[in-house]
Design a protein that fits this description.
Largest interface: A-B, 50 and 50 residues
CATH architecture of the largest domain in chain A: Up-down Bundle
Largest sheet of chain A: 6 strands, parallel
Number of strands of chain A: 8
Oligomer: homodimer
CATH topology of the largest domain in chain A: Dehydroquinate synthase-like, alpha domain
Number of domains of chain A: 2
Shape of chain A: globular
Radius of gyration of chain A: 21 Å
Chain lengths: ~400, ~400
């Protein structure tokens, strides 16, 4: 745990099949004018919209709606939401959906009272903290993956500028005040989206784990989370209706990205940088872009972080170390990870996502290189990793 | 993660060698009249008292002192503190010390405005929640072990009634608003106290881990914490000044008992019940009472929770399962745990703590039997475990 750091995550989590019952108590704490934010309308099909509206009505709330939040919420949609929220004098934002809807709601909560400021420049280029009053946000989570339900992060896309920017706000009051997490809500998701989400979770943990030389408690917690995700993912692909498996995946997802396992760590995040570039070129599902570049990337940097990759093999994948050199052990770990990724049916090649040799220049140019991991990549290194991912 | 549960731990943790710097910012959030609570005065010897007083003065606080909190804070001391706090019109309680000082401060924060209520009956027998206004508590932690820095628990002793009762309050505002955690503060502790604290931490994890048949994420996190504590404890007994080791122990201690790894679990807590009875009879150090009864207890219940004990052997102690029956594997895990306890120099017999055959009746009668673990003990079972611990 070297270094100085702080930790504060006040979000109240309500977990389980009856979690929604707690919406009553929580709503009483906030003002009458509620803005209900959601996505493409799947909550209308599965009955969640009606259940939430009934509770809002029960609690005497005056509700305006901001529907249609897209998978990569845009800055234009954000301005639209600001208009709706201002017209409604919204006092509370209730986000019902996955990471995109919750991310968007957090961006909205800092924007409603930001006056005429250029929201893109202010929050997603200059990364300023809000000085205006922010609105409280509550969340009802319907997908596991991003961890947005218990952090202060918001990712917004500027489509014309082809930029997708994330801002982790400093003030914990930007985090959802509460999140309602019923694993049953995640069960209607198609298998492709389920496994993409599972890999997103797993990679969030890897990004934090594969950095640093110290013997940090965060690494041990990360290993526990990885083992849990591996076990539960194997159960969930056999039977997506396995409640225990889906609930462990949902809970692990929250703890994978709520800052706990990053304490005392520098963090790598290069798989996300490579994957975001792939997303810009192919518009593929986020988790699949990460899956396609992960093994080529980890094999490329493995020698620079050999002790950690050997530990990963033994602790996370139960590889027997006897008779193996440290390097062979490290390789066996990544081989075990590859087998698991195949079991899940994850995308392991950029070609499957629509990229080709002709995309290489765009992929390389779209990649931001960070410096927190075991190796800092040159442009040529980035090109090599992408070429290996084809 | 079966079942419905909630999680909310808003305590802000400041960790590291410069953690105390953050006291300035935090104090600005609270009123002028501060009650400074501490124990036997070791903070006066190591300079912490002076450093804290200087910051309190800097922030213009009006300070009253409530020193002399004992290792097992009594109900009489609590009444004394209430008097001091009322006379001072205290608006904020600053606890500087280990778990006893912080526990006591939480009991005090619900008691100051409780009027003429019988505090013992109200909070530690009837376990009522406070309906009065409570005072905010901040903590500066000087010992790792109890987890009091990030939970809402308080243990108070009634010496005449020979009762030591713990109340985990429901409202998260009873948790310290912030805790300052500098691992250096823990380094002046004698080795006996250090290893007793380490075993207390380890056993907090065991108590939550050894319950339930489900495949809960909490178990995987618990295994990560146990592995971290084992590794760091081995480094710390070689060199108690190993900052990295002491910092991992301090951080693990917080997460071992802040409710995270109990989510979705029933919890056993029988080692603590047995240990508390030993404490009542011998007045021995808490962690050592747990150490003395643990192996006899776990060996006694092992067959009732065989799959979990076998998993414990493999995952926590890296026991090679090949050629072993499940039972042999489970036994090997407890043998590995025994070796580790010997390495640390933990007390493995009640005789060392001053108990004998003559104490058995008192020990048995002083034990509260709980029902959340793998086996519910009869009185005869309890006697057998104590007899095996002699």
């Amino acid at each position: 745990m070297l270094g100085n750091f702080s930790y504060c995550n006040p979000t109240k989590l309500y977990f389980g099949e009856n979690a929604l019952d707690n919406l009553h108590t929580e709503l009483k704490k906030y003002g009458k004018n509620v803005l209900l934010v959601y996505g493409g309308g799947s909550i209308k099909k599965n009955g969640l919209y009606d259940a939430v509206m009934a509770i809002l009505k029960d609690e005497g709330k005056n509700v305006a709606e901001d529907p249609g939040v897209m998978p990569n919420p845009t800055i234009h949609k954000l301005y639209e939401g600001v208009e709706i929220a201002r017209r409604h004098n919204a006092e509370f934002i209730l986000a019902v959906g996955g990471g995109s809807v919750i991310d968007y709601s957090k961006a909205l909560c800092v924007s409603v009272n930001s006056g005429d400021d250029d929201l893109w420049e202010k929050y997603f280029i200059r990364f300023e903290e809000p000085t205006c009053e922010t609105l409280p946000v509550g969340a009802i989570l319907t997908m596991a993956g991003t961890g947005s339900e218990m952090n202060a992060g918001a990712v917004i896309t500027h489509p014309e500028k082809k930029l997708k920017m994330g801002h982790v706000f400093a003030d914990e009051k930007i985090m959802p005040r509460f999140s309602i997490m019923n694993p049953r809500y995640t069960m209607s998701l198609p298998k492709y989206q389920m496994v993409a989400g599972i890999y997103d979770i797993f990679n969030h943990i890897c990004e934090q784990y594969f950095s640093g030389a110290d013997d940090n408690t965060s690494d041990y917690l990360a290993e526990g989370l990885m083992r849990s995700v591996i076990k539960s993912s194997r159960d969930a692909i056999q039977d997506p209706q396995n409640y225990e498996a889906r609930s462990n995946i949902m809970w692990s997802s929250t703890w994978a990205l709520n800052t706990l396992i990053s304490r005392g760590k520098s963090g790598d995040w290069m798989v996300h940088m490579l994957g975001q570039s792939v997303g810009g070129v192919t518009n593929a599902t986020h988790g699949m872009t990460l899956a396609a570049v992960s093994l080529p990337y980890y094999r490329f940097i493995m020698d620079a972080g050999l002790p950690k990759f050997a530990r990963f093999a033994q602790t996370v994948w139960n590889v027997d170390p006897s008779g193996k050199s440290e390097r062979e052990l490290a390789e066996s770990g990544l081989a075990a990870m590859e087998s698991w990724m195949k079991e899940l049916g994850l995308v392991l090649s950029l070609r499957e996502l629509g990229a080709s040799e002709a995309s290489l220049d765009d992929l390389v140019n779209g990649t931001v290189v960070l410096g927190g991991g075991y190796k800092v990549l040159s442009k040529d290194d980035v090109r090599k990793v992408f070429a290996d991912s084809l």
